[in-house]
Design brief:
The chain is an alpha/beta fold. Strands 5-4-3-2-1-14 form a 6-stranded mixed β-sheet. Strands 8-9-10-11-12-13 form a 6-stranded mixed β-sheet, covered by helices on one side. Strands 6-7 form a two-stranded antiparallel sheet. α4 links the parallel β9 and β10. α1 packs parallel to α3. It is globular, with a radius of gyration of 17 Å.
């Protein structure tokens, strides 16, 4: 439902989940949390990476993949957006890739009419190994190659969002390539190991250097596949201040994006105008 806050402000929310190997259960949880965020007045709601499925095996997502524009997950997301009258950014679902043994890890955006209005396929694929942990996304995911931008209009005010996913956060050149935005949307499933040291620092850095809001939606807890994700879904303002933070578990955070705050920061310290490269 579109809220009645100032036309120079936008209420947003990020969902945090601890997704399971059961798609139906995850969709039910997402539906419940989105409804709660919408009832709280959010105009735009973001879901975390892998919200619909955290499989017992890496290739479980390959079996759940859908063709772009056609499939029960996409149909349900469109219906949820329309039912709650919100912009819904669903990051991420498994879509068909060129390689039949892989998927595209894709973020889709829907408007309050349930129409798909945005897409971004994750570009940077995570790989990490210690004596006790191993992750290699490239074994089951095909990398995207196009940066993603989402533009919406609420109450006559235009808003521009940069789209990125989890491991993308470590590559600042992607954010520069996206240009000036009001907010970067970052769904993620950061591991506990890397998250405790780097998550907050990287999110705040992306907000400060790009002088914009950052809205991060995370997985946050111990999953049935024994992996543990860091959580800490956050909203950060253009000065790098944390406006909302959910340490772990299911739930949502919310807050307001302000054009006045964006203009204040960019006027006070016009770093974006001072760029040489």
């Amino acid at each position: 439902m579109i809220s009645s806050i100032s036309t120079t402000a936008l209420k947003v929310a990020s969902i945090q989940m601890v997704s399971t190997p059961v798609l139906k259960d995850n969709m039910a949880t997402a539906t419940m949390l989105i409804k709660a965020a919408a009832e709280d007045g959010a105009n735009l709601v973001v879901l975390p990476e892998y919200f619909c499925l955290m499989g017992l095996k890496d290739n479980d997502k390959v079996h759940a993949r859908e063709a772009f524009g056609n499939g029960p997950i996409q149909e349900e997301l469109a219906a949820i957006a329309k039912r709650n009258e919100i912009y819904l950014v669903a990051g991420t679902i498994p879509l068909e890739a060129k390689d039949p043994n892989k998927v595209l890890n894709t973020m889709l955006a829907f408007n309050p009419d349930g129409q798909r209005i945005g897409r971004y396929d994750k570009i940077h694929l995570f790989g990490f190994q210690t004596s006790t942990e191993r992750y290699q996304e490239s074994e089951t995911i095909e990398a995207g190659n196009e940066p993603g931008i989402l533009k919406i209009s609420v109450n006559g005010q235009d808003w521009t969002f940069g789209l990125s996913i989890c491991y993308d956060l470590r590559f600042p050149e992607l954010y520069r390539a996206l240009g000036q935005v009001d907010c970067h949307i970052i769904p993620a499933a950061f591991t506990y190991t890397t998250g405790k040291d780097h998550w907050e620092i990287l999110l705040r850095a992306r907000a400060i250097e790009n002088q914009c809001y950052v809205l991060a939606s995370a997985q946050g807890g111990k999953h049935q596949n024994q992996r543990r994700t860091w959580g800490h879904s956050m909203l950060i303002d253009p000065w790098g201040s944390i406006l909302a933070d959910l340490p772990e578990g299911e739930g949502f955070i919310s807050g307001v994006l302000s054009k006045d705050k964006l203009n204040e920061v960019r006027s006070k310290l016009p770093a974006l105008a001072h760029r040489k490269l």
